[in-house]
Amino acid sequence: KDDETQKKEIIKYESVDNLKQIHNIEQKKYDNITNMSWKFENNYQLISQRREKIMIDAINKTKFTPMKYFRDTKDLSEGVLDHGTKMGEGWLLTAEMMELVEIGYGNIICAQPFGCLPNHICGKGVMKKIKSLHPDANIVAIDYDPSATKVNQDNRIKLMLSIAREKITDDMEAKL
């Protein structure tokens, strides 16, 4: 029995050593893949940032106002909406509205296409928070789907424009 027990223990240790060797080989493969993935992602980010800079520089040479860098835009939605939000346009819609207000475009029409319920919920859900952070913001959501009448859409836009005109008039009177 002692010989058989010793043989079993030897086989057991050999199989454990084999498992350790297999684990080490698999870990090295994983590390190589992870390293390649990280390099690819890092290079992709660098290329994307260069392209973004080229586009912003080109827009700066025109009469248009360029948006901020994407990473800066993303940071604007912090505290308003979680970056894990994936419904509709997710956090990007919120970040873009915040950015527009911050660069001086306080009158925003948030067009909701074809009854996109997730975008509708996400877009309208953050408008109150954005308005509380930026009281001068004038944001209106307009639904563009078969159930929305053109008259209703036009009236909502006209109402938003009249509020914008009132704010301009109030600002001009305050300066005098």
Rg estimate, integer Å: 29 Å
Helix content: 55-70%
| Biggest beta sheet attributes | 2 strands, parallel
User: Could you report the average pLDDT, rounded to the nearest whole number?
Assistant: 81
Measure the end-to-end span: 106 Å
Low-confidence stretches: none
Morphology? elongated
In terms of structural class, how would the helical and strand content be classed? mainly alpha
Query: What's the β-strand tally?
Result: 2
Beta fraction of the residues? Answer: 5-15%
What is the H/E order? Answer: HHHEHEH
Strand order of the largest sheet: 1-2
List the total number of helices.
5
Describe it for me?
This protein has 176 residues and is mainly alpha-helical. Helix content is 69%, strand content 8%. It is built from 5 helices and 2 strands. The protein has a two-stranded parallel ribbon. Helix 4 links the parallel strand 1 (107-113) and strand 2 (138-144). Helix 3 (91-102) packs parallel to helix 4. The mean pLDDT is 81.
